[in-house]
Amino acid sequence: MSVRQSLLAILDQGPCYGYQLRSEFDRRTGSTWPLNVGQIYNTLDRLERDGLVDKADIDADGQIYYEITAAGSAEVASWLGSPVVRTAATRDELAIKLAIAVTLPGIDIAHVIQVQRSATLRTLQELTRTKNATSEPESSQELAWMLVIDSLIFTTEAEVRWLDHSETRLARAAAAGFAAPLPLSTDVPKRGRPVKQTTGASTTVPGDSMQTGPASS
Amino acid sequence: MTEHPLLRLDGVAMQYGSGETAVTALVGVDLEVARGELVAIMGASGSGKSTLLTIAGGLTQPTSGEVIVEGNWLSEMTPRQVATLRRRSLGFVFQDFNLIPALTALENVSLPLELDGWKSRRARRAALDALAVVELSDRATHFPSDLSGGQQQRVAIARAVVGGRSLVLADEPTGALDSTTGEMVLRMLRARVDAGAGGILVTHDARHAAWADRIVFLRDGRVIDEAAARGVGSLLGAAS
Ligand SMILES: Nc1ncnc2c1ncn2[C@@H]1O[C@H](COP(=O)(O)OP(=O)(O)OP(=O)(O)O)[C@@H](O)[C@H]1O
Ligand SMILES: [Mg+2]
Q1: Considering the domain boundaries, does residue B147 fall inside one?
Q2: Ligand 2 ion: residues within 5 Å (CB)
Q3: Closest CA to B89 of B167, B32, B154
Q4: Does the beta carbon of B54 sit less than 6 angstroms from any atom of ligand 1?
Q5: Is residue A184 part of a domain?
Q6: Which residues of chain A neighbour B190 with C-beta distances below 8 Å?
Q7: Which among A31, A203, B27, B171 counts the fewest CB atoms within 10 Å?
Q8: CA A122, CA A127: separation in Å to the nearest integer?
Q9: Within a domain: residue B26?
C-alpha cells in the first residue's frame, strides 16, 4: 500500500520521527487520508525489518529519529518511476449491487440507478464547492491538495458516467426484451449440495479479492 | 426574499406536431429558480432539456402550463412585451451558439445591450470586459467564421452574461470546450449567479452540473429527481 512508500519518500528528504512523519504526510495530502500514530509506527517497524530504514538519534524529548538506507532510497526511486497497477478484480460494492439487482425480479433498476446517481452527484457537488471555495494554489502544499481534490472529482464523475451508461444499456435491453430476471438455477444442487467433501471449489476465478464458494461473511 | 421567484414553471407540457406524428417533449414540469441559484438540468438526449430551456426563455410557447418570469405571466403578455423582457432580463447560450455571422465577436456581445438602449460606447466597453473574462480580447474584431468552435462558445457565454441579465439560460455551454476552458465558462456563469442572477445550465457533464446548487433530472419529458447540494465540506472535513 502506498502509505509505506509515501513515508519512505518523506524520509528520503531527511530523518524524521513518528509524529513528524504523520504531519508531513497529512500536509502533503491535504489531510484527506489521515494516518494514526499506530499505523506509522507499524510501518516504520516493517520498513526497519526490511532494511529500508534505520533507527538514528534520539532527541532530548525521547523522540526516535528514523533515517532511510540506500536500499530505501532505491525503493523510493523505483516507486516513483513505476505505474500504480489497479487490480481489475477489486470488489466494487456498487457494481456488485447493480449486477445482482439486474437479475432479480420486481426491482426497479432505473430507480436504483437514480438513487445512486443523486447521491454521487451530491458528493460531486460538495467536492466542487470545496474546490471552488479554494483560491488558486500558491504553494506546493496547496497544489498537492488540489491534485487530491481533482482526483476525487474525476473518480466521482466516472461513477456518474458509468451510471448513465448503465441506464441506457438497461433501457435498450428492456426494449429488446432480454432484461428478464434470472430465476434460481435448478441444476445448482449437483455441485453445491453439502454431501461429503467436494474436491475444492467448483469454479476458480483469478484475483485475490474475489471469493468463490459459499459466502462466509 | 422577494415575493416571487425569479422563474417559475407551472405544469408545463409541450407537444410538437399533432396526430400520428405528435412528439410529447415535456409532461407537467414544475420548476422554480430563485435569485442567486444555479440549477443544472441533466437527462438523456431527447429527454426535453432544450425544449424546457426555450420555453423558460419565452422562445417557445408551451402547449399548456404557465411560465412566470420576475412575476410576469408570459401567457398574458404580447409577443412584443415578451421580446422586451427577454432582451432586458434573459441571457441565452444556445446549443449551437447562435452568433450572428455578419457581426464581429465584440458586436455580437454588445448588440443586445445597444438594442436595449445602452449608449454604443458603454455597450462596447461592457462587451470588451466580458470578452476579456473569457480571454478573447485579442479576437474581439474577428467574425464568428474566423473563430474556433470553443471560441465561438465563449463569445456566446460572454453575450449571455453581459450587462447584468437576471436570468441566464445555457444549453450545453461547455460542449465544445476542453476541461480547463469549460471551467472558465462555468466560473463566469457561477459569478453572474452569485452576483444575484438565476441560472439554468443544461449539461451532460456531471462535473459541470456539480457547479449548480440543484440538479434536476429529466426523463421522457418528466422531472424524475432532484439532487440538492448538502453543506459544504462535510465530506472532506479536515481538508478545507
Ligand atoms: N421543433 C421540433 N419539432 C418536433 N419535435 C421536436 C422539435 N424539437 C424537439 N423535438 C423533439 O422533442 C424531444 C425533446 O427534444 P429536446 O431538444 O428538448 O431534447 P434534449 O433533451 O435537449 O436532447 P439533446 O441532449 O440531444 O440536446 C425529442 O424527442 C425531439 O425529437
Ligand atoms: Mg438539447
Answers
A1: yes
A2: B 50
A3: B167
A4: no
A5: no
A6: 132
A7: A203
A8: 9
A9: yes
Structural domain including B52 reads 7-239
Domain CATH number, residue A31: 1.10.10.10
At A191, the pLDDT band (50, 70, 90 cuts) reads low
How many A from CA of B46 to the centre of ligand 2?
A: 7
Q: How far is B134 from chain A (nearest CA, A)?
A: 17
ipTM above 0.90? no
Q: Which amino acid is at B85?
A: L
Residue A36 lies in a domain: yes
Over the stretch B227-237, which tens digit does the pLDDT of each residue have? 655 443 334 43
Q: Cβ separation of B239 and A145 shorter than 8 Å?
A: yes
Measured distance CA(B184)–CA(B83) in Å, rounded:
29
Grid look-up 449491487 returns: A97
pTM: 0.76
Q: Are residues A122 and A162 in the same domain?
A: yes
Query: Is residue B190 within 8 Å of B38, Cβ to Cβ?
Result: yes
Q: Which one of B42, B223, B230, B236 makes the best mutation probe of the A interface by having the most chain A beta carbons within 10 Å?
A: B236
Instruction: Please answer yes or no on whether B239 and A168 come within 8 Å at the CB atom.
Output: no
Range of the domain at A39: 3-80
Q: Which three cell numbers stand for residue B234?
A: 462535510
- B183 occurs within a structural domain: yes
pLDDT at B95: 75
Q: Using a 6 Å cutoff on CB, does residue B45 contact ligand 1?
A: yes
